[in-house]
Amino acid sequence: xxxxxxxxxxxxxxxxxxxxxxxxxxxxxxxxxxxxxxxxxxxxxxxxxxxxxxxxxxxxxxxxxxxxxxxxxxxxxxxxxxxxxxxxxxxxxxxxxxxxxxxxxxxxxxxxxxxxxxxxxxxxxxxxxxxxxxxxxxxxxxxxxxxxxxxxxxxxxxxxxxxxxxxxxxxxxxxxxxxxxxxxxxxxxxxxxxxxxxxxxxxxxxxxxxxxxxxxxxxxxxxxxxxxxxxxxxxxxxxxxxxxxxxxxxxxxxxxxxxxxxxxxxxxxxxxxxxxxxxxxxxxxxxxxxxx
Length: 292
Description:
Elements: E1 9-11, H1 14-22, E2 28-33, H2 39-51, E3 54-59, H3 69-74, H4 79-86, E4 97-99, H5 103-106, H6 126-129, H7 133-148, E5 152-156, H8 160-172, E6 178-182, H9 202-220, H10 226-238, E7 243-251, E8 265-275, E9 278-288
Parallel strand pairs: 1-4, 2-3, 2-5, 3-4, 5-6
Antiparallel strand pairs: 7-8, 8-9
Helix pairs in contact: 7-8, 9-10
């Protein structure tokens, strides 16, 4: 016998969120999104369901983390499809509550005068390419944690720098939320799932595969040392002229500092590139120098 999936409750105001949140049995998990949900978000919700009695998903296109108005305007908005995914249609995971506020609900006084600052960790890699981006991310994450009051918050490993910064903020500001990382979801050909993939033409999508190929090549070279990792990944990227590389970095997972030549241990290999009009990021955890 088939069952009709149950749609999550949708709320848009602070008052409605508070009332709905009060009815949820604990523990409560939250998955924070900007909408345009895909299988990667579904994996986050599924893990949230395994860890908590109730699952809240926030859908908010945060203007503070966009450095260019064009980027914000281009971001896909698919609320109806998002709600269908979160209803469990097609056998997917179900959320209990969706908070989808407008900017004036999250920022009732307009552009906030007080923000959370990412500090030095927010000024490298993505932060160097997108100044102020992580201040906007941390500000909205802190606000949503206060509004939702979760016990657990789940974030994707694909945004490794964001994940690190959220963990540091939660620890440094004593927010009392467990932050859980969920592995990157990929298409069968290796492309990391991203809402931005919707902007890729068929040719762009083929070009975009160079990011995951470069990471795999670097990962395969990891036992030989840091130079071998960088060289193997760079060689793959250089063979694809249609991908305009922003950065390729092999860094310490906690400090984000470039690992030195004789480094041995866990590291993060990260890449960002423009493919057509779309900027994509990806990363891979590696263990450097295992054979030495």
